[in-house]
Amino acid sequence: MTTGFADELLARSILSDRSAVAPEWYAWFSDLCNTDVLDRIAGEYVRNIPRQTLYDFMQIGRSYIAEIACLAAGVNRKFGRVHAHPIAAIVDYMDGRANTLADALRAAGGIKYIANELSSNASNNSLPSTLRADISNRTIFLVTAHESSAYLIATACLVLKRAPDTPTRDAVRTAADLDFPIQSVLRETTKDLRWGDFPLWKEQKIRVHIGAAFGGGRQPNRSFGIGANACPGAKLALAATEAFVKNIRPLLPQTTFFEQNRRTSLAARTFRRLNASTDLIT
User: Fold this and answer.
1) Per-residue b/e over 131-168, b at no fewer than 16 CB within 10 Å?
2) Please, are residues 89 and 107 in contact by the beta-carbon 8 Å criterion?
3) Is 10 left (phi over 0), alpha (psi -120 to 50) or beta?
4) 160 near 249, Cβ under 8 Å?
5) Sign of CA pseudo-dihedral 144, 148, 150, 153
6) Quick one: which of 70, 133, 147, 184 is 20 to 30 A from 1 by CA?
7) Residues 230, 221: contact at Cβ < 8 Å?
8) Is the CATH number 1.20.58.340 carried by domain 5-278?
9) DSSP three-state, residue 233
10) pLDDT for the residue 148
11) What is the mean pLDDT of the segment spanning 240-254?
């Protein structure tokens, strides 16, 4: 169905005008994957998981990924917490949970606010100097992949609960094949056409809901449209997921996930919570 002015407004924001992803970004993400920083951050989150009480496993995954996003965008770890509200407005809209005109206004305003904050805040010294002025891509990498990576973590943990002998990397790759990074894409028609029984007119904007495999190139991925069909941050997302799953793996035998008829993966994203309880290890 069409989403009209709301999507058009966001499409004309900084999202549509950002520069291409420079090779230096891929190198920067590879550098992060090859250090122990992901493991250290994952270890901190796992150590802080409450014991013998009900908690939201998905929220822990989101918070962890938000810190990784700060690292990728070249800001300190508290940046995401200080600016949580505008980031949440963007994430909710991009993930399809909010789609009114007011939601679009909040998301577009949030993007511009975050871009201004990145321009005025000092970069993390570890961020390569060639990337510090690339505010558009820094904004994108700060706000994307929160939900998809959190679901990837949860799905990998469910894979291990059902098949405890699976190697960590294999569990993450299996989860990546089940989950997908993008829920929907905004497209504009170039001519009048029909989609099944539904007529579409030239220059009409539509939001297409899709499911595309995220499995490191093992499955076709068309979620990113024309051009290279690959997520620039895929390697970092997989590495961050592996770090978290490796750290939480010893707790999984004592962890109960209160699923609601989940037979394959969490990819459908029909809910935001995954309640869990972890016993003390004796």
Assistant:
1) beebbbbbbbbbbbbbbbbbbbbbbbbbbbeeeeeeeb
2) yes
3) alpha
4) yes
5) negative
6) 147
7) yes
8) no
9) coil
10) 82
11) 96
